[in-house]
Batch of 4 targets.
Target 1
Amino acid sequence: MMNTKLREYENFHIVLWLIKDTCWVLDLKIPGLIMILPTLAVAIYLTWKHRAVKSELFHNIAVVSWLCANSIWMIGEFFFDDTLRPIAIVFSSIVIILLSYYIFIRPKEKRVGAV
């Protein structure tokens, strides 16, 4: 069963992410930039805390990668005439991380009875 405290951090992380993206949509540059740090910090913390469970680890790595892409894209739109999008695309390729989990690791876990 998931630790209640970690679940609270996960819910708080969603709030931080929504605030960051709301700042982006409202073109609030400084608050948007400020929100990158706590949003990424909590995502990295959650990734570290879930590292013992492979499925959680892979999904949290994907979230951190997505947040990096999202933040780079936002910074590019705010300050660089949207020229940073190619860099953001590199981080967006997180689908490869999740695919590798579902193609290679998850089937092995199912065979040995791990979930």
Target 2
Amino acid sequence: MNAIAPIYVGQFQDGVVWIRVEGKGSFQNSPELKEFALHMIKRGATKFVIDLENCPVMDSTFMGTLVGIVKHQDPDRESSFEILNANARNLQLIQSLGLDQLLTLDADGSKWPAIRNQVPALIENGNPLEHIDLEKRENNAHVLEAHQQLSATSGENTTRFHDVIEFLKKEMQGD
């Protein structure tokens, strides 16, 4: 089995929460991302940057988790959720699922220039988020919620993820 990709995080003085995925964004590491981000939102964080420089690909659960985080942000507060350093494959995935309507994409690498220089030190000196190992039922619920979030973003996604959602619902009924 492949090692679970670590996720490093930090909050800078101007309040920006930087999240860097060091490997595949997947159902395996999305629970800790979700828990961390929701905790930061409760503490008042409004600016999130997801740095995908070393993330070769994301699965649908990970992307649905990103959508869920965005939807948890307070609509009455000015907030941002930006994707930086996405490779061509991740950009294609984000755009094909319509997530570019919810997330801000920094395709040219021009945003947050002062903070970008600080990120390597943050990663080298930091610890990754602690992995959350979910029980089967909890994992199914997490994956189901992520796919429901994706499905709600567009009619195409509703059709695209219908079978996955129905399968997960049946799995959960059988548990």
Target 3
Amino acid sequence: MSTHGHRVTVGVRCVLARALHRVPSVPLVALGLLLVGLAAANAQDLGIKAPPQAGPVTIYNATIHTVSGPTFAKGFVTFDKGVITEIGEGTPHVPLNDPGFIDAKGARVYPGLIAANTQLGLAEMAAVRASNDITEVGGITPEARAAVAVNPDSTLLPVTRSNGVLLAGVFPEGGRVPGRVSVMRLDGWTWEEMSVLPDAGLAIEWPQARPITARWMDRPESEQADEIRRSQEQIEELFRAARAYVTQKAADPATPTDLRYEAMRPVLAGARPVFITAGDIDQISAAVSFCERHRLRMVLVGGRDAPLCADLLTSRDIPVIITGTHAFPKRADSPYDDAFTLPARLAGAGVRFCIASADRTAHERNLPYNAATAVAFGLEPDAALKSLTLWPAQILGVDKPAAAGEGRVPAHGGYGSLEAGKSATIILTTGDPLEITTTIVGAYIDGRKIDLGNKQSALAEKYREKYRQQVPKPPASRP
């Protein structure tokens, strides 16, 4: 992963410009490449990042949804230096004309929503390779961290924020062990400022458990089986070698340092989980057995067959990140609402879960509506809200205030619910955030007031103004 894919694009654009300047007759192919480069370079957020909180803020006359506790029908929340200091029912004393006191006028207050599984900041335009920084070179790269490749100026970040999503679990992809997951704020000047937890755990793409026999598959089953076996052995060997390295390094500190194995220390020690992407029941079972052999904490990503092995997951307290409800049935004989009912079925079986979006990077703003679909198909509304706030914070390991030295900036942390001592990462809304008619009217990340404007809202206003300026022509007079 390069640090900022858009810088590569700018370089390509400059090279093309110089080449076109020298060539009198510009080929159409070169012109097309130039336009692609210009498009990628212009995909940059020009907004100013939010400054640190300057003084105490109290939001009152609001319905406060704490998520982890009671809902205050007419409540208030006070926060200072990015931390909630007081929350409760009633109206505080409001000094005259004090800008730190905000009358919400009946709006609702919720914790900021969390997109648990995204490539936000790593991908801009799918058709422009230089703007995509999802995949590291090589199939086994545990040393790669998603955080360092996140582009703080991605235009997709403010678009996503505008619908209440303020934090994201950013996953690398590609290869069997593509790297480490990072939990990021969706605002900041640099990736360091955006990072909540740069190393939240190790991502693993689990191999298929059996050959694919669909009509479109043109590879023989024996060849597929060999590849599956090699992939499984590759993952097994990585963890055996990493544990042997840690043991050897402890016995002999002079052992040469291996960055790949060093990056795996938190996972091997149980301080961080492995995020294993698997869907079929036999994949899930194999992944659970693997984690038990290597004494690893596991989070299941995807898990379309998770209800079929619910007992296995609950007995080992393995949570599931559901990768969206807006999907077709997995198999030809599956019910039409297979994806829609997955959260309700997991909740009924007692499996811990959270809901991510099925609408990938450019459409992560649709996250709340994935949970809304689950509500329409049996999930309790309270559980749906928690699946976007408290539960992803717990699964990603950012729900509790962090002490200094745990790698989080700022040190307090604590996301997913509204409680005294936790982060003031909140949204103000006109209604239930799961409803498509609801508007987000205010947002704070660690107490910093966030600009909810974005490229899409600017373009909408631009073209509204175009039609406002058009003066209707007078009707033609008859002869």
Target 4
Amino acid sequence: MTHHVILGAGPAGVIAAETIRRHAPLDTITLVGDEPEPSYSRMAIPYLLMGSIDESGTYLRKSPAHFADLNINVLAARVISVQAAIKKVVFEGGESIVFDTLLVATGSHPVHPPIPGIDSAGVHTCWTLADARAIMVLAKPGARVLQLGAGFIGCIIMEALSARGVKLSVVEMGDRMVPRMMGPTAGGMIRDWVDAKGVEVLTSTRVESIAAGAPLNVRLSNGRTMQADLVISAAGVRPAIGFLENSGLTCLLGVLTDEHLQTNVPGIYAAGDCCEAFDKVSGKAVVSAIQPNAAEQARVAALNMVAFARGQALTAELKGVTQINVLDTLGLISTSFGDWQGAPGGEHVELTDKAQGRHLSLQFMDDVLVGCNSVGWTENVGVMRGLVEGQVKLGAWKDRLVNDPTQLMQAYLASAQGQGSWTGAQDERRR
């Protein structure tokens, strides 16, 4: 009997298990998670902190019997190594299982900054349900909260903390907010918006030390010392692949895969935040830590796991991933698609109206929009994504957009009609 083992019980792992079951009704499937919780979405944790949902609202599947009904074995265990050559997974405690096919879908884990006192009581990441429970105890109305990091995840956490009525300060090492998603103008506009909403943001600033106690005393690189009832570390995440050292799998930033999501070892696949897959815009292998990409990667990997187990050709292919980010920061919508910083030899146009809180930046290579970002420009989100993802050839419309970036919708409709790239425009018209 074929045994498919999936490491990681988040969205990618769950979708892969369900896909395998649909296409291989009799195969054995083991889904391994390392938390004592039902499978849940980390992206739902901010809504839990806001009080919009309870813990069950974070669960990926609502029925407690969902996996049992599908005859999917769920195992709570921490993986310490994978031995690809003999197809074995070893767990903490010494137990092990063997597999015919393996999917690595272990996601990411928070970066642990090397700050003295970062392990003090009252300092938490915001990544797990256990983290959320601890934060809700401390983040009472009026509590002094200091957050490390104003990147994409940090801004989502900031939104949740603000909704709890805390007195919030945010420290960001970069010179602007969301520096991996926004240029200086856009990042500065988001900071101005957040400041106006009563959240203090200190950019180009580091936390140098945290002194334990109640309150915590936090020393900053600007010479200031702040007292905090709670410190949130949101300094970014990295693929959770440390257990793959000496496994035989090729890993760069993430687990390197081909168009079938297969690794360098036949029968072993990767998907989700730990996976390094081909980005069709940049032409490079990237880790794209967003849920839509994770879901598609999981689907493709699962289909190929079934094919491999049956000795069939691998026909399911990932068409590529695109960097896609849409962020709501205290009511201000910002977006970043594709190669937003531009490519060597490309063209760039930018339109900024700070009084209206609107900014638009477009990056072109030849007559293709390869990247863009925006602040407060909500009417063309679907069009921007469609143009970048579809790599739509704009022809003469490229020069028109350079002269007037507000003509995005017209450019999409005129250029996409003959190229079969209507999805983004149709989505936009339904908005």
